[in-house]
Design brief:
GO cellular component, one term: endoplasmic reticulum
Helix content: 40-55%
Domain Pecanex C-terminal: 703-925
Subcellular location: Membrane
Number of helices: 41
Radius of gyration: 41 Å
Largest sheet: 9 strands, mixed
Number of strands: 27
Membrane topology: Multi-pass membrane protein
Biased composition (Basic and acidic residues): 134-157
Length: 1310
């Protein structure tokens, strides 16, 4: 043995030189990762530090649980002791929490720092970018110096308002909320597990319960993880030509929106949750409870407790993280040890522990054998070199050894690599799931990381690969938001950590490597390939996208095929591939790329003239809309430089100007003259000035015209000189255009140097944006050529483009930031050079849309083997031949695509993303199905809501008809109401000795009135409902104002006070004196002159009632004298309606109407006079409030908005009075004024949001009991309900559950 070890050590240099031994850090990472996966049930790691972190984390969890397991097992009750029940509850909670954590310790570290350090440390301020200081939580800081009113140009502050990436702040918030939610859910799971374990379910029902659990898990898992994924595959079982369960976008040619959730996806998600958290948890707890005493007896209490803790944690974490093979695990373990080898079982718990390890190794061995057999199949072998042809026959005697190599490599999880791409396979060294040792990711070359000199002298990064890499970066961001949720929906089929997928579309082709797959999180890496790949890559892409459904061959005959089935040849070929298509319409948010040659756009001189003309017009637009225009016009240096140009006879004879290019070229003077410039562009100049918020005077406009003329000369001269010759070939013209487009501004004439001394903002905010705008307008010229001659249309086009489009060079950092910000439209001018030195100019237009990808699942052992082979060939064997045989196309294994995706310099991907983690909570569709975060505050609100609903429902079911407590004060006149005291004018001293009883409601559109002066035991109130004023009536008193058709009436100004002849006939039994009724109805009449009787009265305020109020019609609502004698409790409440001013009162209120019909006022007693006077004062205040509300409505109709003071602001004081379920559209619910309000006015829309005490909002509607309008009628007889808007939600709440923020809210409410 010693000699063998020494010989192995001596052979280390040779073995290592062939790449058969790993580095120390790689081996340590691999070893720790395997320990965490196979012993603690963990997931893959992202590096050596990550591997150490996950192992320490798992050991800490076991240490925390070990004591409870030991305390329970040492007692006589063993697994039924209370300590063991606590252990089971904690085991479930800890396992759930660990399964939800990422293996990256940086996530936890950032979470800890965010709660400890609120800002950057002083030492780190120098290393903190200005954007990081300016912006916080992904929000753009508002400019402290706002732009002047005329400044509408977004490009002026492009540097100051630099776009900030919102993703880091969003992910930090997601991780924080996810951590808080996991604490709550883990606590709930722990309590439930503890409670179930205490019920002796796992002992009294054994062994039937254990058998029922593994049968249920196996049956449900077989459907979820075998049948259902096959039903959704593109070619189920590689026999059928189309899926059984089609996606909603399957037949769409182009995606028009995000993927729609289909019913099978919802069923799959909920059944997976049920399987994971119910069946698998019960199965684990059953096995732990049943087998723990046996393990403790066999190994001792100390070791037994440790074994039970480790095995239980691995089992639960494995179920929570990845249950795609759970059905195989539980069924095969049960059948193997309970049917085949009955006496070999070491308890079902330990059987499951070791069976999971064996099953994973057997599955890995199966994948390796599939890869090998597919790769060396003689009928589809592709020899990339002469060595491949030579090695093919020598691999036949190697087959037996190949089987043993595959078994060994599967045992140690080492890749099985083809030697130099041939049919001879070797076992490579062990690697972690991440595979690559270094954290490689693409560094994009742009102006932010290159020197200024290199930007001017040459074009850094001017190649398609560097410029196109941003689209893969954007795809990575999109996948980061949606991938975990999409995998949960099963849209990529059955997925496990280590799997490799390929996404293919028209332009984008990339590999997605699933590195870590936890509970509700996925860590992946994207490797983007070239847009225009090599010949071999194109052949393999064609093999992926070609359809096989039309193939009708069977061997050498055309026998056809059965409906929806593959032909014989197609089915056979699909089985000899190392990849399969799992979905053809996977929808991801991305960009549609339009790539047009700029040469064809500017080949003709007329098209160049259009560009120059649009450039001048855009320049005029940006000058007039600039916020610094006044400073420019007062700049002494600029005025001195422009002094010669003020004359209309000024002409610039520079030969760079040409009649074929410049619209304002003067043929007589052979140059560009000021007079010709004004002839061409003066109308446009005046129109742009007219669109300013504050148009300039004629004198100032003349100065602007001179400035624009000088700037256009500078811009055109710079464009022509950068082109070497303005009228030369199109390549020269495009060279100058591209230099200006990317911001290279270098004047070659001394006549233009004034612009440097004046203000460089003229270049950054006027000249460069004008050139960019002109290119976009020239693009639209082909579509709307005639419309661009209209100044209004042209102006609106510029405004629209300036608002919706991002016009920037691709090397500008703003281009990358805009793409990552999902800007809808973008345009750039690209200049690329190929390896031969040929230059090409292309116009790139991006439009945000939803892209459809084909999802191809590749055998992960095929990918690992080919990657390992390339690494050995290039790094260890030093084969740098770019046409080596190992990278030639092989369609059956996608050899060229896989080898091209290796890290550089081994492969040549144009983009490799950093390790990216996607969380389930960032997928909106998944959250809409299973819900979002759960926090302690959300649980508290849910409990309060449940209690409030129970209280309200129980109160509504009471026989009294009210849900408020009964009055104990004997002064109360009715049940369910309480006394209120309102200090209104005229009410002082009139309520003593009377019980003032009224409703507990109080809404902003109501005026409360003390009516104790009218009746000794009641106190009604008025409801000011502004929407009911027009055309409302009060015919009970026979009074008409503004055109009522009543007999015996007389007109006085705008009001008519009628006699009571017709009123008495309509009332039948009750009537009021004429002067009494007039005083009560018209508060502007002589209610103060209580001693006079007659039809003529004196105005209180000198005002008249608006003639638009119609108070002529009414229905008799007052009770008869007989009814009055029966008392208030016997008769209930009656209502008087006055043009939307409604009084609720007891029948005793009608005592004011019991005076004789023609009794003079002086004959009334003093108390009745006081009642009438108070009522008149009350009506005056009510009608004044109505006038203000009407004025507010007219202001709203005229201006489209109301002053915030006019809207009543309230604060919730008792959240228990919120009605969160009256928006369900039931007959017993209220009628809502607006459907949008109804949809947002209940817990079905609020989800986890719950109104609590202290929230503030605006009252937008109210429901009042017994209201004549159904829309304003409350469904409760004793509650007025307010509709309070809080954000985008509408909260119905009883009036006594709110507090007004100001007293004016009651009167100025709209």
């Amino acid at each position: 043995m010693r000699d063998s070890v020494l010989l192995l050590i001596l052979c280390f240099p040779l073995i290592f030189s062939f790449g058969l031994l790993p580095q120390v850090n790689t081996f340590a990472n691999y070893f720790l990762e395997q320990v965490d996966i196979h012993y603690f049930g963990g997931t893959a790691s992202t590096g050596l530090i990550s591997a150490c972190y996950v192992v320490i984390r798992s050991i800490a969890g076991i240490a925390a649980l070990y004591g409870f397991a030991y305390a329970g097992l040492k007692e006589p009750q063993s697994s039924q002791h209370i300590f063991f029940s606590v252990f089971c509850g904690l085991l479930v909670a800890v396992s759930y929490h660990l399964s939800r954590l990422s293996s990256d310790p940086g996530v936890v570290w950032e979470l800890v720092k965010s709660h400890i350090w609120m800002g950057p440390e002083p030492d780190d301020l120098e290393n903190t970018s200005e954007a990081d200081i300016k912006h916080k939580d992904g929000e753009v800081r508002q400019n402290k110096n706002p732009k002047p009113e005329g400044d509408v140009c977004k490009n002026e502050n492009s540097e100051d308002d630099d776009l900030v990436d919102p993703l880091p702040a969003k992910l930090a918030e997601t991780v924080s909320k996810r951590f808080a939610s996991d604490l709550v859910i883990g606590l709930i799971f722990g309590v439930l597990a503890f409670a179930v374990h205490c019920s002796t379910l796992f002992t009294a029902a054994q062994p039937v319960f254990g058998q029922a659990m593994w049968i249920a898990c196996g049956s449900l898992g077989f459907y979820l993880h075998y049948l259902l994924p096959h039903f959704r595959k593109e070619m189920p079982w590689k026999c059928f030509s189309r899926p059984f369960f089609l996606s909603a976008e399957y037949h769409q040619w182009e995606a028009t929106g995000p993927a729609k959730i289909i019913v099978p996806e919802k069923i799959y998600v909920w059944l997976c949750i049920f399987e994971k958290y119910v069946l698998c948890t019960l199965l684990s707890l059953s096995a732990i409870t049943a087998d723990a005493p046996t393990i403790a007896e066999k190994f001792g209490v100390g070791w037994g407790a440790l074994i039970v803790t480790i095995a239980g944690m691995k089992l639960l974490r494995g179920f929570f993280c990845d249950n795609s093979q759970t059905y195989l695990l539980v069924v095969l373990t049960a059948l193997f040890f309970r049917v085949d080898y009955v006496g070999r079982s070491e308890t079902y718990l330990l059987d499951l522990f070791f069976a999971r390890i064996v099953l994973s190794k057997l599955y890995e061995f199966l994948l390796k054998m599939r890869f090998v057999i597919t790769y060396i199949a003689p009928w589809q072998i592709t020899w990339g070199s002469a060595f491949h042809a030579f090695a093919q026959p020598f691999s036949i005697p190697h087959s037996a050894m190949l089987f043993l190599q595959g078994l060994f490599s599967a045992t140690v999880s080492a890749p099985l690599q083809p030697f130099l791409g041939s049919a001879i396979f070797l076992t490579s060294y062990v690697r972690p799931v991440k595979f690559w040792e270094r954290d490689y990711n693409t560094k994009r070359v742009d102006h932010s990381n290159t020197r200024l000199a290199s930007q001017v002298e040459r074009n850094p990064g001017a190649d398609d690969n560097n410029l196109n890499s941003i689209f893969y970066e954007h795809l990575t961001r999109s996948l980061q938001h949606s991938l975990c949720g999409d995998l949960t929906f099963g849209r990529w089929g059955a997925t496990s950590q280590g799997d490799v997928f390929m996404l293919a579309s028209d332009n984008l082709n990339c590999l997605v490597h699933i590195i870590e797959m936890g509970n509700g999180l996925v860590t992946f890496q994207v490797r983007g390939l070239e847009f225009r790949g090599t010949y071999c890559q194109q052949r393999e892409v064609e093999a992926i996208v070609e359809g096989v459904g039309d193939n009708r061959d069977c061997c050498c005959c055309k026998l056809g095929r059965l409906p929806r089935m593959l032909s014989g040849n197609a089915a056979f070929n699909q089985r000899w591939l190392a990849w399969e298509v799992t979905a053809t319409k996977y929808i991801v948010e991305g960009y549609s790329i339009s790539d047009n040659s700029a040469v064809s756009m500017f080949q003709m001189f007329d098209l160049r003239k259009v560009l120059v003309t649009y450039c001048v017009k855009s320049l005029i637009y940006y000058v007039l809309q600039a916020g610094s225009l006044e400073n420019w016009l007062s700049n002494e240096t600029m005025l001195a430089a422009l002094k010669p140009m003020e004359e209309d006879s000024y002409v610039d004879l520079d030969p760079v100007f040409h009649s074929s290019i410049d619209e304002d070229y003067d043929f007589r003077l052979l140059g560009v003259s000021k007079s010709r410039f004004l002839d061409v562009y003066q109308d446009w100049l005046k129109y742009v000035n007219s669109r300013r918020s504050k148009p300039l005077s004629q004198e100032a406009l003349a100065g602007v015209a001179t400035l624009c003329f000088g700037l256009c000369l500078v811009a055109r001269r710079t464009l022509g000189q950068n082109s070497t010759n303005f009228s030369a070939g199109v390549d020269m013209f495009l060279n100058g255009l591209h230099n200006l487009f990317k911001g290279v501004f270098d004047t070659a004439s001394t006549r233009d140097e004034w612009i440097y001394a004046a203000d460089m903002d003229l270049v950054k905010k006027v000249v460069i944006p004008s050139v960019r705008m002109s290119l976009k307008l020239q693009q639209d010229h082909y579509i709307s050529k005639d419309e661009h001659t209209d100044d209004e249309y042209f102006y609106d086009s510029i405004v629209s483009i300036d608002k919706e489009y991002v016009l920037a060079h691709e090397a500008d950092p703003i281009w990358r930031a805009s793409i990552l910000q999902n800007k809808p439209h973008m345009l750039a001018l690209r200049h690329v050079q190929d390896e031969g030195g040929a230059e090409e100019y292309r116009v790139i237009m991006l439009s945000k849309k939803y892209l459809a990808f084909r999802v191809i699942k590749v055998n992960r052992e095929c990918v690992r083997g080919l990657w390992a082979g390339q690494q050995q060939e290039l790094v260890y064997l030093r084969n740098r031949n770019p046409e080596r045989g190992s990278i030639q196309n092989a369609k059956q294994v996608l050899r060229n695509i896989i080898n091209s995706s290796c890290d550089q310099p081994i492969g040549y991907p144009i983009y490799v993303s950093p390790l990216t983690t996607s969380y389930a909570e960032t997928n909106e569709q998944l959250c809409s199905v299973i819900g979002g975060y759960i926090s302690l505050d959300a649980v508290r609100r849910a409990i309060l809501n449940a209690w409030r609903r129970l209280r309200i429902r129980c109160g509504e079911s009471c026989s009294s008809g009210g849900s408020m407590p009964q009055c104990e004060d004997p002064a109360f006149g009715q049940e369910g109401t309480y006394a209120t005291n309102h200090n209104l004018p005229g009410a002082a001293g009139l309520t003593s000795g009377y019980s003032t009883c009224g409703s507990h409601s109080a809404v902003p559109l109501q005026t409360f009135i003390p009516m104790a002066t009218f009746c000794p035991t009641s106190r009604p109130y008025l409801d000011m409902d502004e929407s009911r004023f027009a055309g409302a009536s009060m015919g009970s008193f026979g009074i008409s104002i503004g055109g009522a058709q009543n007999s015996g009436r007389s007109r006085a100004g705008g009001a008519t006070v009628g006699g009571l002849g017709s009123a008495s006939r309509r009332l039948g039994t009750t009537s009021l004196p004429a002067n009494v009724s007039a005083s009560m109805i018209n508060p502007y009449q002589a209610a103060g002159e209580v001693g006079r009787l007659g039809a003529t009265t004196t105005s209180l305020t000198g005002s008249t009632v608006p003639p638009s109020w119609d108070l002529g019609r009414m229905s008799p609502r007052l009770p008869s004298p007989m009814a009055l004698q029966s008392g208030p409790r016997a008769q209930g409440q009656k209502a008087l309606t006055l043009s939307g001013v409604r009084m609720r009162c007891d029948p005793l209120l009608a005592c004011a109407a019991e005076a004789p019909r023609n009794q003079p006022m002086q004959d009334l007693d003093q108390r009745s006079k006081q009642r009438i006077q108070v009522f008149a004062s009350m009506m005056k205040a009510a009608l004044e409030a109505e006038a203000e509300a009407t004025a507010a409505k007219r202001a709203l109709e005229g201006n489209g908005s109301l002053d915030p003071v006019e809207l009543p602001r309230v604060r919730i004081s008792d959240a228990n009075l919120v009605f969160d379920a009256i928006n369900l559209g039931r007959r017993v619910d209220v009628q809502w004024p607006d459907e949008n309000m109804r949809l947002r006015g209940g817990r079905d829309y609020w989800k986890n949001w719950v109104p609590v005490d202290g929230m503030e909002g605006t009252v937008v509607h109210k429901w009042i009991p017994f209201h004549q309008n159904p829309v304003s009628r409350s469904h409760l007889i004793d509650k007025t309900i307010l509709l309070v808007q809080i954000g985008d939600r509408f909260v119905p709440i009883a009036e006594n559950g709110i507090t007004y923020l100001n007293d004016s809210s009651r009167i100025k409410a709209h």
